[in-house]
Amino acid sequence: ILFFNSSNHFFLGAIFDESAKKDDEVFRMAVADLNQNEEILQTEKITFSVTFVDGNNPFQAVQEGKVHSEVRTAF
């Protein structure tokens, strides 16, 4: 999971194996729950992106992580 903070905005990027559809659903629900809980996040908001990679290609996750990192640090 990648994490970036900018002022009152948090960004999470998750990379899952293509077979991890349930993990994606749990991740999305967790972010939604955090965004709705004013005791945890009073003025902040979390946005996210999810990328699926081929589990047979271990280097794809590394490449995806680099792409997300380069895009977010440019802002």
TrEMBL record:
Highest taxon listed in the record's lineage: Eukaryota
Record-linked PANTHER family: GLUTAMATE RECEPTOR IONOTROPIC, DELTA-2, GLUTAMATE RECEPTOR IONOTROPIC, DELTA-2-RELATED
Name used for this protein in its record: GRID2 protein
Species: Vombatus ursinus (Common wombat)
